[in-house]
Design brief:
Blueprint lengths: L1 H15 L5 H22 L2 H23 L15 H26 L3
């Protein structure tokens, strides 16, 4: 029975690392780490318990941070191409735009 708990924890941790969404990763990793910590405690493998207990606490901390912090994004329509904001934005990010645009162009023109 103990081995099944250990395998379940291992599978959950492995699955969590395949998530693209950081929120899903944290929740699944929390389940896996807490399961694996329980396994370590029941088995008497205290290094396993301590490490996964710590990972559980870290996951809990970051989950609270994700739900507490609100990011606000907005798409703005630029009606006037001569708008001061647009000109300032383009001037500030000009080098980055050139660099990444050039990378995209070179990537598209490479032949496989």
């Amino acid at each position: 029975m103990l081995e099944i708990i250990g395998y379940c924890g291992s599978v959950l941790i492995a699955v969590s690392l395949m998530m693209k969404s950081m929120r899903k990763l944290r929740w699944i990793n929390l389940a896996g780490a807490s399961t694996f910590a329980t396994y370590g405690l029941l088995l008497g493998a205290y290094p396993v318990f301590v490490l996964n207990g710590f990972i559980t606490l870290v996951d809990i901390y970051y989950i609270f941070q994700m739900y507490r912090t609100k990011d606000y994004f907005e798409i703005l329509e630029i009606k006037n191409p001569q708008a001061a904001f647009l000109n300032r934005f383009l001037a500030f990010h000009c080098e980055d735009i050139k660099t990444f645009s050039l990378r995209l162009i070179l990537k598209k023109t490479k032949t496989p």
